[in-house]
Amino acid sequence: MRIKCVIAAGGLGTRLQGFRDNDKTKVLLEVNSMPMINQQINQLKQWGVEEFVIVTSPNFDSLIREVTSQAFPDLTINYTIQDNPKGISHAFSKAEQYICTGDTVIFVLGDNFFEENLTKEVDFNKFSNEGGCIIFTKKVTNPNEFGVATVDNLGNVMNIEEKPAKPKSNLAVVGLYIFDSLAMSKIKKLSPSSRGEYEITDLINMYINEKKCTNVEFDGWWVDAGTPDRIIELENLLP
Question: What's the predicted TM-score (pTM) here?
Answer without folding.
Answer: 0.95
